[in-house]
Specification:
The protein is an alpha/beta fold. It has helices at about 15-25, 85-95, 105-115, 130-135, 160-175, 175-185, 205-220, 230-235, 240-250, 255-270, 275-285, 290-300, 305-315, and strands spanning about 5-10, 40, 45-50, 55-60, 70-75, 100-105, 120, 140, 145-150, 150-155.
Amino acid sequence: MLKKIVLLALPGVAPFEFGVICEVFGIDRSDMGGPSFDFTIAAAAPGPVRTSLGFDMIIEAGLETAEDADLIAVPAHSFTRVDERYLEVIRAAEARGAWVLGVCSGAFTLAQSGILDGRRATTHWMHADQLATAYPRIMVDPDVLYVEDRGVVTSAGTAAGIDAALHIVRKELGASAANVIARRMVVPPQRDGGQAQYIQAPLSEDCADSFAEVAEWMLQNLGEDLPVEQLARKALMSPRTFARRFRADMGTTPAAWLNRQRIIRAQQLLEQTELSLETVAADTGFGAVAVMRHHFVKVLQTTPTAYRRAFCQRRSA
């Protein structure tokens, strides 16, 4: 179970990406029914660590604290050759099966360690070509928010680190725990990793507001059949225009967005209730258990039954 988190403070660390990891994992949210982690910030040379904005942070813990961490997090930092001691920590974590998270340019540190060889990865779209050129054994996807490949997670820039961190929480502790953290942070509880990093031509404020209204209505009616034609009427658009503008505004297709929300709702019902699989499938719009099982296996690499069993056991533990 995800319990001990170690955040590596490398020279030139970016304060925002550093703060993202602190915010997700460093705050005790047990009073709201959320998780509490054993959270430590560590440096190869404890003491002052200069940030990318020119001020110092005082880090007290050394890298020895990372030896039994369940997650090693590497935030964005300056593009310099990384101290070998950090790379050894990352390699050791990957070798023992711990999670490793690289936020934004933190992917370059993971690449230097060698653990991204043969894996899919991403980074900020401005640096994706540089990562692919420097490390040709990595399958770099420049268009997505984050990628998980066998316990190693890399994200795009800034706020995408929140999505990647919440993804790990959701995989380990369930949708309910991730939602508690997201609610406290006032961020969406789930943006799918395959969502686009950025939008070339943002929609007008009026159009964006209309999609927010439609998306909220979709969430309130997940158990219904929601064809694009119906959603388009709700938004006062033609189906073709709605589909195109929804993708531009939300970064994914209506069907993919809706499917992901249905999976999240099903996760919550499996964690929090004793409803039958048939009822969960009906209430979330999958209709049949077989359809729900198909999507669980495709997205979560597990079945609804195994998911419920796993999170019942974790709550008991």
